[in-house]
Q: What sequence folds into this?
């Protein structure tokens, strides 16, 4: 469901993908309702981020939405090139607001 300020996932398996060229990929998001954590998985160019994972993901790209806030999903090391970012929400109820890049 897309509204003025957010898009909310109604069924499991929803995905957002975008091309980016930045060191960091951050996203303002969280569970649509309190007390309903939502697991997610991040890929870079179709692969887990490994050492380029953010503070809110692990090397496999796994993370958990536990509250409404800014999540650091990718923190690249080394040379920055154009890449494809994907996030998949494994359960319904994720609310996504905006990307920021650093």
A:
């Amino acid at each position: 469901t897309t509204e003025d300020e957010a898009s909310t996932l109604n069924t499991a398996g929803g995905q957002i993908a975008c091309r980016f060229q930045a060191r960091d990929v951050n996203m303002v998001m969280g569970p649509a309702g309190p007390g309903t954590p939502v697991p997610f998985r991040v890929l870079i160019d179709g692969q887990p981020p490994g050492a380029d994972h953010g503070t809110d993901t692990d090397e496999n790209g796994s993370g958990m939405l536990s509250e409404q806030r800014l999540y650091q999903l990718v923190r690249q090391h080394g040379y920055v090139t154009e890449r494809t970012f994907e996030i998949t929400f494994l359960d319904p109820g994720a609310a996504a607001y905006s990307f920021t890049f650093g």
